[in-house]
Design a protein that fits this description.
By secondary structure, this protein is of the alpha+beta class. It has helices at residues 5-16, 23-33, 36-50, 61-73, 83-93, 106-112, 307-315, 325-336, 345-348, 362-371; strands spanning 124-130, 136-140, 145-146, 150-152, 156-159, 172-177, 181-186, 192-195, 199-204, 213-225, 237-241, 244-248, 252-257, 263-270, 273-276, 281-284, 288-293, 300-304, 317-324, 339-342, 351-357, 378-381, 384-387. β9 and β10 form a beta hairpin.
Length: 388
């Protein structure tokens, strides 16, 4: 099946830059997708040209609506649009996944490429729960755990039965997610926290109703959906890190503060948060990010940010906009639990824009980057990848 050039350009724009589409362009794509044969072609087109199979993405319809509506509210030029158009598009695609390059001659590339079997696996649900008494529980996908106050389905922890019980008011748990893992925890107040690879968080198993709720992100990356203070006796919520304190009332935000990185980044999705160090405080609004140096903590930089690129890891994809290959490989090394070495530092500084499915094999992602002519070659030795 062939496709006219005009329609192909429109589809590429829909995949790579939907926010700049006119109402007419968006309607044209939606109407075209109502045809079953066009839908089938569209899926194959994306799979072949972008190395992404939408069917493999775990998509939550309610979450899609929530994020799309929020996107329109935060972008004035889209407020007058009919949000159902965006929802229809999301329902079909699953999630708008993009990559900035169309790969030419893919058929020949795959015929000439020899695939190597490796022992590198994609990340999975796994974590270590350290109880207040020091006991450690290995949590794994497909395995359950339960005690008096918490139970796990192998993908998340869910706390209950500790409210109003004095016995648990001074008890803390620590959840550690290793490289190659991710996990979810729902605190006793209903606050939801998603932890990315190589992250650790400390939190009380019970909060005293009406008093401030505080958790500590020891390192790594976490997405917070905080239960409003009005729903929990007026108690505010704080996230501590060695470099900063985040005060919230009830909101959604992402905190990234990995051990090996010089800065701590807080990205606000919804609501309002105050970022403070020992001598300065600033307030974040939606679609803003704060940057705090972990070394001197003398200043807080606030800048506008593309929220989706910062939180896409939670949705099952990697989204990069003008990021160096060095930065991208840091993200991949955590998710696939590998070490990545550049033979040429000039290659490490090349900028890349695109979105990749987290369920892809590492070899597929490397070939995607190679076919786009960003790297010349790569070599995989056990759990080490050498970029040439």
């Amino acid at each position: 099946m062939s496709i006219e050039k005009k329609k192909e350009k429109l589809i590429i724009k829909y995949l790579t830059n939907p926010s700049n589409m006119t109402d007419k362009e968006l309607n044209d794509v939606i109407e075209w997708l109502r045809n079953e044969s066009n839908k089938k072609y569209f899926k194959e087109y994306v799979k072949v040209n972008y190395l992404i199979d939408y069917a493999t993405i775990n998509f939550d319809t309610n979450e899609a609506k929530k994020h799309l509506i929020r996107y329109i509210k935060n972008n004035p030029k889209h407020r007058k649009r009919k949000w159902k158009h965006f929802v229809y598009a999301a329902l079909f695609v699953g999630v708008i996944v993009s990559i900035s390059v169309l790969f030419k001659g893919k058929e020949n590339f795959y015929k000439e490429t020899e695939f190597t079997q490796t022992n590198i696996s994609t990340g999975s649900y796994k974590a270590i729960l350290t109880l207040n008494n020091g006991n450690e529980i290995n949590l794994k996908e497909g395995e359950t755990f339960m005690n008096d106050i918490v139970d796990s389905n192998g993908e998340g922890l869910f706390y209950s039965n500790a409210i109003g019980n004095d016995k648990y008011e001074s008890e803390y748990n620590v959840l550690s997610v290793p490289r190659g893992g991710h996990f979810f925890v729902q605190l006793i107040d209903g606050t939801k926290i998603w932890l990315n690879s190589d992250s650790r968080i400390k939190y009380p198993v019970s909060f005293i109703r009406g008093e401030s709720r505080t958790v500590e992100l020891l390192y790594g990356e976490a997405y917070f959906d905080v239960t409003s203070s009005t729903e929990y006796g007026g108690a505010s919520f704080s996230v501590l890190h060695e470099s900063q304190k985040i005060n919230v009332i009830g909101t959604e935000f992402n905190v990234k503060a990995y051990k090996e990185e010089k800065y701590a980044y807080t990205t606000l999705v919804e609501g309002t948060v105050d970022i403070s160090t020992s001598n300065i405080k600033k307030t974040l609004k939606p679609n803003q990010q704060s940057i705090v140096s972990k070394l001197d903590r003398k200043d807080i930089t606030v800048k506008p940010i593309s929220v989706y690129n910062e939180i896409s890891w939670k949705e099952g994809v990697f989204s990069f906009k003008n990021k160096s290959l060095k930065e991208i490989m840091k993200v991949l090394s955590r998710w696939y639990d590998v070490d990545i070495i550049f033979k040429d530092e000039k290659i490490a500084e090349l900028k890349f824009t695109g979105t990749l499915n987290k369920n892809q094999k590492i070899e597929d992602i490397l070939m995607t980057i190679k076919s786009a002519k960003y790297i010349n070659e790569y070599e995989i030795n056990s759990k080490t990848i050498i970029i040439k």
